[in-house]
Every structure is written in C-alpha cells, then in structure tokens.
C-alpha cells in the first residue's frame, strides 16, 4: 500500500445560491477576482464560477438561479466544513472590522490565536469565513508551516498550552541558525552594552 502525496489545495468548490449573489460576495466583499464562468459539467441546471483567492488556486461556486441566499449557519456535523480561512495582510486585517461594520456584517472582532489574529463572519449562505493574518514572517526560503512545526515542538517541550509569540520567535531563531551560515564560532546571545 502506498500514499498518494498531495502538494497543496487545487481548488475548493462550494454550493452557492444564484450567480449574482455569489459574485457579489466572493469578488465584491472578499476581493477575489472572478476569473471564469462555465456550466457545471455534471449538472446542466447549474453554473460554475471560478474565483482566485490570491494565491493562484481556485475557489469555485456551483450556482443555480432557483436557489436564494439563506442566513442560517451551515451544518457543523462530523464531515461538514466548519469554516474557510483566508490569509490577509496585517494592513488589511487591521481594516476588516471597520469594513465589515460599514456593511452591517456581524463578526467576532479580532481573536488572538497566539500565532495569528483572526476575524470570523458568515457569508450570505451561513458558511463561517475567517480572515487571518500571521503574526510572523518565516525566514527566507522557509514556509509558515516550517516555523509552526518548530514552534509546536518548543511549546510541547516547555509544557505550554498553545503556541505563542515567544515560541514563534525562538523557532525562527533556530531555523535561521540551521539554515544560514556565520563566520562566528559562538552565535549565542550577547550583551554589547
């Protein structure tokens, strides 16, 4: 038996309501360019809209003009999607609350998650959306995931409950020491004052 190694999310497809409300939310609220539109090749009664969430991958929406937006929370039963999280810059994240308030969209306010800050709100169909921003930049040539696994190991070794900024800073320092050479024999912390 062998694994089928994945290399990232190709796309996520959601069941939407009508075409225009889907465009209005995904492009008009979240700013995702509407990049193409075709019929749902498995159901001639539906459209299939494609949006770019900012990383070149795809969010796609099946639409049907007979479906209308509902505002109930989507199911959170086992096997159901709890929420979708999208990355935004810190500059954008700092504007999210005011911009949601200006539209009259209820939201959670900023939630400190230790390694990121998050804001939650529902789309017009009741799907929980998270806009998240990392509190750190990974060292050159590494990913957020690489920093996170190191921060996790540090957190566990220290017996801490959740990853915090100190774990992230220490993880980044460890990654830099491993990946970048120095002429110094002793790279430990010093006090030049």
TrEMBL record:
Domain VOC: 8-134
InterPro entries on file: Extradiol_RC_dioxygenase, Glyas_Bleomycin-R_OHBP_Dase, Glyas_Fos-R_dOase_dom, VOC_core
Pfam families noted in UniProt: Glyoxalase
PROSITE patterns: VOC (PS51819)
UniProt-listed SUPFAM superfamilies: Glyoxalase/Bleomycin resistance protein/Dihydroxybiphenyl dioxygenase
Organism, scientific name: Thioclava nitratireducens
Domain of life: Bacteria
Protein's name according to its UniProt entry: Glyoxalase
Organism ancestry: Bacteria, Pseudomonadati, Pseudomonadota, Alphaproteobacteria, Rhodobacterales
